[in-house]
Write the structure tokens for this entry.
Amino acid sequence: MHMRIARRMTSLAQATRADIPALVELMGEFYSESHYRLDRHWAAASFDQLLGQSHRGGAWIARAGSEPSGYVVIALRHSMEFGGLAGIVDDLFVRPAHRRQGIGAALLGAAFAECRRLGAVSMEVEVGDDNAAAANLYRAFGLVPNDEGRRHLAGRP
């Protein structure tokens, strides 16, 4: 899928392995905003694995001209709670200079469209309490807080 986004001739396309250097660059900026250190070799290997196994999800990249301006990563899993395939917004990032131009919504829209095409029955995302702009974007796509006394825990097996 390749589409044009209004303003500044921004394009959006499903990422391929050729996009990995740009995706790693964007991911590094995303992590830096949250004061996380990114192992770029690990990130490149992770993108390579994801983009080589479309049944696990995918990534989309936005460009303003030839400059990468944002990306989204969707991971797929089976949800017992919803009884089918679930899409997880694993990463969504738009460079600060390109924010508030509809790029995040276009990236999220592409990811949602792919999940619908695959028959996903639910979508999930994590968003920080301090990120009102992202929370509002996710809410516009129908994603609402699921505060049922549960906490998301994560770690390595």
